[in-house]
Amino acid sequence: MTSESRWPEVIAAVVAEYGRLDVLVNNAGVGAATDFEESDLAHWRFIQSVNLESVFMGAQNAIKQMKLNGGGSIVNISSIEGLIGDPRSAAYNASKGGVRLFTKSAALYCAEKKYNIRVNSVHPGFTKIAMAASAGDLFGPDDLVRIQHEIVIGHMAEPQDQGFGILYLASDYVTGTELIIDGGYTCH
Amino acid sequence: MAVGRVQGKVCLVTGGTDIRPKEGEAAAQTLRD
User: Fold this and answer.
1) Per-residue pLDDT tens for B1-33?
2) For labelling alongside A145, which of A27, A53, A127, A154 has CA 20 to 30 A away?
3) Mean pLDDT per segment of 10 residues, for chain A of length 188 residues?
4) How would you classify residue A41: left for phi > 0, otherwise alpha for psi between -120 and 50, otherwise beta?
């Protein structure tokens, strides 16, 4: 995913097996809480490589294929941290904010070219997945209590909550938009 | 990565087993993504 030369191979393999590509979900991402003054450029570049550069390469290669199909949909998974800042996640914030605006640029490009390819971003908030149990090591009990309190709907998202949003954006009309699925975390 | 049909559309999804972040990074991503 972070290899420019491998992306055309991936798309070609999908087309070889399925005959076309209709939807790309740029979902892969990594993050880490780091001290702003102590983190190094290698860490910064690693985060940008996975979270932002792979989104660019995926979209670029998908568009080249989808335009041959007569259209398609690209869903880029950003984050609520692409919308709001976190003092311990500068690299992550920068990468996810980049995904947000890259999405709009790609949407405009595809519309201008009349490719019938839609490009949107999803901004998940805190979501229950298998590894969540270890998150307390990073955030601490007080942080988790605060987070839970600030999710106004009262609980973290289930993975399916994110999936429904992605599925909607894979449909045939919406483009250039950002869908926040965070239980109201960012509304105050 | 994963590929398959969803509602008749061919979908490619990145992420999952091809990402092996260092311990701690995985947990952070869990909460944020």
Assistant:
1) 899 998 899 999 998 643 334 434 443 343 333
2) A27
3) 93 97 94 90 95 98 97 97 94 97 98 98 87 56 83 92 93 95 95
4) alpha
The separation between CA A146 and the C-alpha centre of its own chain, rounded to angstroms, equals 24
Q: Which of B14, B22, B31 sits opposite A25 (nearest CB)?
A: B14
Residue found by looking up tokens 């690209």 in the block: A74
Q: Give the separation between CA A115 and CA B25, rounded to whole angstroms.
A: 37
Total residue count of chain B as it appears in this document: 33
Considering only CA atoms, give the Rg of chain B. 13
Helix (H) / strand (E) containing A166: helix A159-169
As for the ipTM of the complex, it is 0.91
Q: pTM for the full model?
A: 0.89
Say if CB B14 and CB B7 are below 8 A apart.
no
